[in-house]
């Protein structure tokens, strides 16, 4: 890389064009938060180096915008094939808090998937860089095509062009196990750690963002690590279909069949994608049968159980359901908290436990959304130099919290608690002090504090005009009782889960 001639006027013009296009595509707010702080550090033969102010920001930009930045550079200057992101402490930080909220949450499937094609630079690549200060470099290269696949520097890359890259964060060690996913986790581990076939197929299913892809990647990685020579192919059903269509177009279905039928483990993610796509289903059905017959392992994931998949032929559905079907249930508070702790650790940031608890209470959908909320909060705090507090979280995540509060109201909580403890709803507002009445009322106040973002005085008003200190006392009392009495804690937790579902 020629650092001296690097930042000439024409390079800056090209960088401006890339930035202009990014702004049009991602919008003003995302641009201001993520693209504006990048600086053109160097440009040389075939590569561009961009400076990023923090490591966290580098990871986020690389995952969410890296591929697009690289392809825009290549469009404007076809000689550019590599874009490096380098943490440079001197790179500008945005002067003012970005308003509106910093960045869009990653759009469920597409953004996240696009991010997964990026890979961290290997130490060899980093050594090849000039001696310029590049302590934390991450590089985006074009996804290898079969013809141009580089000599494998990672195991994933070694697996010819068939397999999709594996996200290095999606390992068994990073998967948080709780009641909702313990069965799926155990089944996934069994497949990953058994030589030969376990359950065929293993079919993992569950709603959006509950960890199916994470488990699939973990299985593939573990198999490759532990079983040398085992050919493991992991790809999405969409990629399977595109490969099939390409083979049809190139009149090369024979080698397509050979490729897919010679693997030891075939893993196909989001199999619901082939709903209504009859030729792909037909081809997949034959591949499936051939692999089962020859004793290869198959692992599939979907958003529904095999029997509930619509527009997939009956015979394929029944084949898919004849191994082990394991579902991932919606997350609980504890699981979300565990996921948040694990993600914060992976991001290398210290987040106060009260903040993590706040997110786990307020963002109740799935792993992807809680992670998105955490990233957004940490990015905001880092970029505008604020400390991570519950108040910051309340402010930065206000849209998510509001959406949640619309779902659970104090009235819902009162009704559910009254029903559960068999007291009259009117007693939530009454002045009666008998313990049989006062305790459920305290539970309802506690849950109102946990499950809504209403203030203490506001909660008090909804309980017969009580004072905020009464609510505070109720919250403390219930926390104390829960800590000392597991049966009571379970009861309160059950109520919370019913309200959250
Ligand atoms: N139990 C868990 N432990 C750790 N991380 C989790 C867990 N569940 C979900 N996640 C995280 O949530 C995010 C979304 O998970 P993943 O992509 O695996 O979801 P999915 O079930 O495949 O969703 P989709 O159906 O949308 O593809 C990932 O970052 C993943 O690491």
From TrEMBL:
- Taxonomic superkingdom: Bacteria
Where are the coiled-coil regions?
A: none
Q: Which GO terms describe its biological process?
A: DNA replication initiation; regulation of DNA replication
Give a Pfam family name.
Bac_DnaA
The GO cellular component terms are:
cytoplasm; plasma membrane
All copies of the Chromosomal replication initiator DnaA C-terminal domain together span 409-478
Which intervals of the chain are annotated as region Domain IV, binds dsDNA? 382-501
Q: Where is the composition biased (Pro residues)?
A: 94-107
Q: Does the keyword Kinase apply?
A: no
Positions of the UniProt region annotated as Domain III, AAA+ region: 165-381
Q: Which UniProt keywords apply?
A: ATP-binding, Cytoplasm, DNA replication, DNA-binding, Lipid-binding, Nucleotide-binding
Which residues does the record give as ATP binding sites? 209, 211-213
Residue numbers spanned by region Domain I, interacts with DnaA modulators: 1-125
In residue numbers, the region (Disordered) covers 92-163
Q: Where located? A: Cytoplasm
GO molecular function, a single term: DNA replication origin binding
Compositional bias, Low complexity, is annotated for 108-121, 137-155
Bilayer-spanning residue ranges? none
Q: Where is the AAA+ ATPase domain?
A: 198-331
Describe the family membership recorded for this protein in Swiss-Prot or TrEMBL. Belongs to the DnaA family.
The record's comment about this protein's domains reads: Domain I is involved in oligomerization and binding regulators, domain II is flexibile and of varying length in different bacteria, domain III forms the AAA+ region, while domain IV binds dsDNA.
Q: What does this protein do?
A: Plays an essential role in the initiation and regulation of chromosomal replication. ATP-DnaA binds to the origin of replication (oriC) to initiate formation of the DNA replication initiation complex once per cell cycle. Binds the DnaA box (a 9 base pair repeat at the origin) and separates the double-stranded (ds)DNA. Forms a right-handed helical filament on oriC DNA; dsDNA binds to the exterior of the filament while single-stranded (ss)DNA is stabiized in the filament's interior.
According to the record's subunit comment, the protein's assembly and interactions are: Oligomerizes as a right-handed, spiral filament on DNA at oriC.
Q: What is this protein called?
A: Chromosomal replication initiator protein DnaA
The gene behind this protein is: dnaA
């Amino acid at each position: 890389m020629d650092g001296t001639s690097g930042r000439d006027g024409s390079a800056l013009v090209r960088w401006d064009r890339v930035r202009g296009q990014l702004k049009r595509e991602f919008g003003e707010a995302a641009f201001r938060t993520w693209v504006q702080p990048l600086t053109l550090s160097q440009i040389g033969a075939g590569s561009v180096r961009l400076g990023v102010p923090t490591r966290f920001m580098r990871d986020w930009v690389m995952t969410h915008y890296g591929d697009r930045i690289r392809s825009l550079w290549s469009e404007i200057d076809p000689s550019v094939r590599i874009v490096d992101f380098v943490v440079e402490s001197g790179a500008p930080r945005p002067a003012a808090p970005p308003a509106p909220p910093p960045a869009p949450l990653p759009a469920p499937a597409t953004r996240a998937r696009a991010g997964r094609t990026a890979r961290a630079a290997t130490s060899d690549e980093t050594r090849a860089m000039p001696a310029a200060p590049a302590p934390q470099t991450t590089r985006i290269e074009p996804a290898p095509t079969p013809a141009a696949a580089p000599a494998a520097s990672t195991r994933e890359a070694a697996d010819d062009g068939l397999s999709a890259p594996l996200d290095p964060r999606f390992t068994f060690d990073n998967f948080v196990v709780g009641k909702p996913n313990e069965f799926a986790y155990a089944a996934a581990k069994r497949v990953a750690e058994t030589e030969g076939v376990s359950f065929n197929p293993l079919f993992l299913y569950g709603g959006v963002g509950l960890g199916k892809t994470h488990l699939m990647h973990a299985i593939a990685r573990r198999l490759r690590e532990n079983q040398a020579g085992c050919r493991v192919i992991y790809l999405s059903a969409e990629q399977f279909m595109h490969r099939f269509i390409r083979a049809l177009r190139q009149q090369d279905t024979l080698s397509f069949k050979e490729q897919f039928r010679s693997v030891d483990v075939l893993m196909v993610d989001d199999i619901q994608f082939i709903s209504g796509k009859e030729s792909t289903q037909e081809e997949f059905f034959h591949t499936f049968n051939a692999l089962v017959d020859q004793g290869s392992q198959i692992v599939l994931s979907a958003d529904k159980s095999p029997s509930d998949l619509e527009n997939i032929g009956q015979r394929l559905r029944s084949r898919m359901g004849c191994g082990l079907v394991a579902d991932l249930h919606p997350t609980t508070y504890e699981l979300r908290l565990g996921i948040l702790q694990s993600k914060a650790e992976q991001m290398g940031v210290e987040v106060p436990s009260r903040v993590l608890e706040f997110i786990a209470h307020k963002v109740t959908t799935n792993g992807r959304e809680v992670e998105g909320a955490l990233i957004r909060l940490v990015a905001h705090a880092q970029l505008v130099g604020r400390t991570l507090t519950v108040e910051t979280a309340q402010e930065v995540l206000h849209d998510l919290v509001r959406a949640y509060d619309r779902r659970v109201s104090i009235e819902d909580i009162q009704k559910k608690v009254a029903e559960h403890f068999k007291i009259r709803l009117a007693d939530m507002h009454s002045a009666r002090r008998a313990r049989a009445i006062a305790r459920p009322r305290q539970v309802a106040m506690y849950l109102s504090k946990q499950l809504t973002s209403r203030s203490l005085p506001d909660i008090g008003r909804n309980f017969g005009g009580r004072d905020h200190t009464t609510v505070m006392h109720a919250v403390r009392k219930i926390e104390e009782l829960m800590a000392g009495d597991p049966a009571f804690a379970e009861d309160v937790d059950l109520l919370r889960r019913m309200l959250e579902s």
